[in-house]
Amino acid sequence: MTRTFQRPIKRIVVKLGSSQIADSKMRPKTAQLRGLANQIKVLRKRKIDVVLVSSGAIVLGMGLLNENKRPTDLAALQARAAIGQASLMNLWADVLKRAGLKCAQVLLTWDDFNNPVRCQNAKNTLNAILDQGVIPVINENDTISNEEIKFGDNDKLSALVSRLIHPDLLVILSDVPGIWDQDKKVLIGEFKEVTPLIKTVSIGTANAQVSRGGMKTKIEAVEIATVKLATNAGSSCIITDGSIKNVLVRLVDKERIGTCFIEKENNVLNVDSEHEFIRSHFKNSKKS
Fold it and tell me: Which of 102, 205, 245, 281 could form a disulfide with 211 if both were Cys (CB 3.0 to 4.6 A apart)?
């Protein structure tokens, strides 16, 4: 039995948490990322745009400094992010080059979503990069912003990026195969909304030294990405394990892997509402 998406998959956003980038000893998961790059190559041959939202700068920075305990001081975290960001991009550039692909670094802050001019500029830049057949690698600009550290492992960022560029699918790759129910069984089906039960079983991360956020922030991302507005469609969203063999290709081929939330028809706002919808979540972030 296969999944049914609302429309053909022509563009996907793939979010990778820090646990997909580095192991518990803060070493890059190079082999796994090479496999992912080869999957992206397959998708690009099918004329599918791929955008990566990649965490990992802080843990790679910690690895370069031979640390195994995450700092708590903001300045120390920002320093690790600055140290590790170059390694993160070198890692992506290397694995994608081996697959015959090019990448571009895009660093964003929440202010880029709050200001309408900056928001439009970010959208235009991402679309221009994709027009060149290049893979955007997006991360929070941790060096000058504390919001990623506060809100979790780029989950909300991936959802806001989805609101900007309207992919057909947002894939959140984690270290679990999907959302568990109260009996620890993975919810494999397709869901039209995040139910109170799903929110109840969503918990934080168990690996706080590498990852931040856990399932709670992923659920929040789903709620942002899947809403269909009066002016623009939302995106289907799948949460699953990034270590599954050929996971991206299999998902695009409609294999029932992970927990899938389909686009929610809500029409919550009127004409010219997309930026206001994004901005409302920027405000909610600032209040959290």
Answer: 205
